[in-house]
Amino acid sequence: MTSEALASDDDNADPVQVGDLIAGEFLTEDVLGRGGSGVVYSARRKTNGERVALKVIFAEHCHSRQIFGRYKREAAILQRIGGEHIVRFFDFVEHDGLLAIALERVEGTSLERVLGSPIELQRAVSLSLQICRGLEAAHEAGVIHRDLKPANVIVEAFTVGERARILDFGLAKVVHGEHLVTGLTERDMIFGTPEYMAPEQARGDEVDARCDVYALGVILYEMVTGSVPFKGRSPLATMTAQLTEDIEPPRSRAPTRDIPPALEAVILRALNKEADGRYQTAKELGDALEAALERRVISVNFHDAEDAAVSDTELALRRSQVHAAKGLLEDAEKLAASKAAKSVKPAPTSSRDGGRAWFWPVVTVAAILACVGIGVLLGLRGF
Known about the structure:
Layout: E1 21-22, E2 26-34, E3 38-45, E4 51-57, H1 65-80, E5 89-95, E6 98-104, E7 109-110, H2 111-114, H3 121-140, E8 143-144, E9 153-157, E10 162-166, E11 173-176, E12 179-181, H4 199-202, H5 210-225, H6 235-244, H7 250-253, H8 261-270, H9 282-293, H10 302-307, H11 312-343, H12 351-379
Antiparallel strand pairs: 1-2, 2-3, 3-4, 4-6, 5-6, 7-9, 8-11, 9-10, 11-12
Helix pairs in contact: 3-5, 3-9, 5-8, 8-9, 8-11, 9-11, 11-12
């Protein structure tokens, strides 16, 4: 975890000082960052000198059931999940009435900071795929993040390239089979960040892993266009937009970015307002992104594809493209019908004249349908 994981605009006094020994175990060395509920310190474990990021909660919040629950639950959650794309949890301790969590010290830059400049499309997809893998690990452990956003993703230099790591599962909800554990929230309270919040989350409904799929869709949208889909004047305005407004397609939002239609189709499906209309898992989203990245050309004849047992991901991409073309097809049919109606004459005509009456509308429909088919096929070019 780095100092960029937390905001730096809080005026509360630091809960502990640099040089303090916390719980007889961790020696604080520096302040990495401050947020609304606590401070993150660079620290070392006394027994072996291991460097950690130590999150310590502000004293005035230690008697708050919600804040206490957040930190305690974060520790319990992080013990259940692991993987190279999640910041590792080390320990949860109490010190003089304070709460602290020791996490892996990650040397990197927050994705929020990375987004300060344009990101190449391939890099955006690569980072998204890595975030997908981190979410897969969490979801397999029954953990939902519920507050996935660029500030909660650290990008660190790796042996080859870079690695994205997800942090701060403090707002997560743990699912034990059919039992939903929602002790973190009070009744009717909503947690999350409005710009990255799925519609069902904004409504205060029960959520599942698909809200994380939506949040990652927003992050990917932001990476390829330079802005989030919705940004209102207030959190409430943003949440209202998440519920009621249509998302502007990425290619329309950023026409100079040359975003491939295949990638746009993936993003728009991830951002479907209905959870059932999205990718149902982070793995499905990752598979779709890989399909777009690999420049697969996908036919629109999904009856043949289903007979050939083509993957659900490819079928989903096909249907996305067909859906996008649906409006144009309907317009073509209306145009043809209009032309045919105008060509009808009240008086009987010869077979030769009658042929002329329907010939050109049919040719028009055929030409438009052909163009749509070719457009859908070519529109799925890779990047």
